[in-house]
Specification:
Elements lengths: L1 E3 L5 H10 L8 E5 L6 H5 L3 E4 L5 H7 L5 E4 L6 H17 L4 E7 L9 H16 L2 E7 L6 H5 L2 H4 L1 E3 L6 E2 L4 H13 L6 E5 L5 E2 H12 L5 E3 L3 H10 L4 H15 L9 H6 L6 H7 L1
Parallel strand pairs: 1-2, 1-4, 2-3, 4-5, 5-6, 6-9, 7-11
Antiparallel strand pairs: 8-10
The protein binds NADP nicotinamide-adenine-dinucleotide phosphate.
NADP nicotinamide-adenine-dinucleotide phosphate binds next to α1.
Protein name: NAD(P)H-binding protein
Organism: Chitinophaga chungangae
Length: about 280
């Protein structure tokens, strides 16, 4: 059986929708915190198991008789995220899971600017030391985050963000999900680490250019605001300090080119071209 954690989240749900066409529903285990959120899964014959990343016993129960686990990275940050992700790896190992597939981030590292890069590095290490077979998807940022980054620029084209000329190899989340589903049903027994990216990397200046060329927003422009001014905006917005640190780390990371790498392996996993950023921008 194949278990998907975070199965009611965006990536988990999309992965299950692709898995549904590739294997019997009874072979899929959806691991969620709240079964009420996924009643449609149970009706479709998918097994729903309740577990929390903070509760190792619940994770071990969720992974009973499971051969492969898709570990969707924690939505938290800092020590909490590290503990939660270690719990999932340990529970998978304790439950006899053979193969773990993990959604990491581009350029993970103990000294990564991006806080999630530090968490993912710790988890990758735990997975590699666990003895389980592993496939690691080092995902770049989703296309779907672009509207969140550029905020009101979706209306007026004015992008304010402190990322300098840093570029991001944005990638379409459903393309990642389909590639994950392909890996989850494959019989490949080797370990692999994939950089999952779009075909090209784009700065926020480039995105302003795309708003002009693809959306006809002639006045679209990018303003590389000072980091302190951006932080002050987040404070004004009422964001908790921990989250502010996380979002600031993301901006620093982009500016330091941690998200600019590109790789074609996603198209090999999909056996078809990826969605392009132009197609995505045109559609939003
Ligand atoms: N590459 C990117 O651009 C990008 C952007 C955003 C996030 N991410 C990372 O990629 C992951 C997947 O993305 P996504 O779009 O699917 O995120 P998402 O829609 O926010 O889904 C996160 C999932 O994790 C589950 N979860 C959170 N805390 C949990 C806990 N303590 N125990 C069990 N489950 C828990 C959530 O369940 P509940 O519904 O119960 O909270 C949800 O199902 C995220 O969790 C985050 O680590 C990447």
């Amino acid at each position: 059986m194949i278990a998907i954690t975070g199965a009611n989240g965006n990536l988990g749900k999309a992965t299950i929708s692709f898995l549904f066409d590739k294997t019997a529903p009874s072979n899929i285990v959806a691991v969620v915190r709240d079964a009420a959120k996924v009643q449609d899964y149970a009706e479709a014959g998918i097994q729903v198991r309740v577990a929390d990343y903070n509760d190792p016993a619940s994770l071990r129960r969720a992974f009973e008789n499971v051969g492969k686990v898709l570990q969707i990275s924690s939505a938290g940050f800092g020590e909490t995220a590290i503990r939660e992700e270690n719990n999932v790896v340990q529970a998978a190992k304790d439950s006899g899971v053979r193969h773990i597939v993990y959604t990491s981030t581009l350029k993970p590292g103990d000294n990564a600017h991006f806080f999630a890069g530090r968490t993912c590095n710790n988890t990758e290490r735990a997975i590699k030391n666990s003895g389980m077979q592993y496939t690691i998807f080092r995902n770049s940022m989703y296309f779907e985050t672009i509207p969140l980054f550029i905020g009101s620029a979706m209306n007026d084209g004015q992008i304010y963000y402190p990322a300098g000329i840093g570029k991001v190899s944005f990638v379409f989340r459903p393309d990642i999900a389909e590639a994950l589903a392909n890996v989850l049903v494959s019989d490949n027994n080797g370990n692999a680490v994939y950089n999952i990216t779009g075909s090209d990397a784009y700065s926020f200046g480039d995105i302003a250019g795309l708003l002009r060329s693809e959306k006809g927003m002639d006045a679209a422009a990018y303003f590389d605001v000072p980091a302190d001014a951006y932080r002050a905006e987040l404070v004004k917005f009422g964001m908790p300090e921990g989250e502010i640190g996380f979002y600031m780390s993301m901006a620093h990371s982009i500016k330091a080119h941690e998200f600019s790498q590109t790789d074609d392996v996603l198209e090999q996993l999909l056996q078809r071209p990826r969605l392009t950023i132009r197609e995505f921008i045109r559609a939003i």
